[in-house]
């Protein structure tokens, strides 16, 4: 008897606590008019263009060298050429992050993949290390 009373009390409380839907209350659909500065629409469009222009996904690369100062671009290009001769299977990239030119290599989706190559690269470039970077989409082969 006590169980039946507790069960019916819980069910009654659940029914009372449930919110009523709009259709049941008979209210009409609401119309909302947004008045905004036209520059907001321009900013949204500019953001979409920039976000759409980003080609790539988050991943990892190995940073092999960093140069700054006079002739740093020439030095980093020379190091890129040397790296490409030793490791032709890895694509290399030169990034400019003022005032540094950085030589980064590979398009690794996981840190483990980058670590495997780092062990091979570290023999020739002992200061190389793994960095988080945007990578190119994998090729469909």
Would you give an account of this structure?
This protein has helices at residues 2-17, 22-25, 38-53, 72-86, 111-121, and strands at residues 57-68, 92-97, 100-108, 129-135. The protein contains five helices and four strands, in the order αααβαββαβ. The mean pLDDT is 84. A hairpin with a 2-residue loop joins strand 2 and strand 3 (100-108). It has a domain at 60-135: Sporulation related repeat (Alpha-Beta Plaits). It is α+β, with helices and mostly antiparallel strands. The termini are far apart.
Summarize the structure.
With 141 residues, the chain is an alpha+beta fold.
Task: Say which CATH homologous superfamily of the domain at 60-135 is assigned.
Answer: Sporulation related repeat
Distance between the termini: 71 Å
Following the backbone from N to C, one meets helices and strands in this order, namely HHHEHEEHE
Q: Considering DSSP H and I runs of 4 or more, what fraction of the residues is helical?
A: 40-55%
Number of DSSP strands?
4
- The order of strands across the largest sheet is 2-3-1-4
CATH architecture assignment of the domain at 60-135 = 2-Layer Sandwich
Shape: elongated
The rounded Rg comes to 30 Å
Count every helix, treating DSSP H or I runs of 4 or more residues as helices.
5
Instruction: Label the structural class.
Output: alpha+beta
């Amino acid at each position: 008897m006590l169980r039946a009373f507790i069960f019916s009390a819980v069910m009654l409380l659940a029914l009372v606590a449930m919110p009523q839907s709009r259709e049941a209350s008979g209210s009409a659909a609401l119309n909302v008019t947004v008045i905004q500065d036209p520059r907001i629409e321009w900013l949204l469009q500019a953001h979409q263009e920039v976000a759409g222009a980003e080609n790539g996904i988050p991943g990892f690369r190995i940073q092999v060298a960093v140069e700054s100062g006079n002739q740093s671009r020439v030095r980093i290009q020379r190091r890129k050429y040397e790296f490409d001769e030793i490791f032709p299977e890895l694509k290399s990239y030169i990034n400019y992050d003022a005032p540094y030119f950085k030589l980064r290599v590979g398009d690794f989706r996981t840190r483990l993949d980058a670590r495997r190559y780092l062990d091979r690269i570290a023999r020739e470039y002992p200061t190389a290390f793994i960095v988080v970077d945007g990578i190119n989409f994998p090729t469909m082969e």
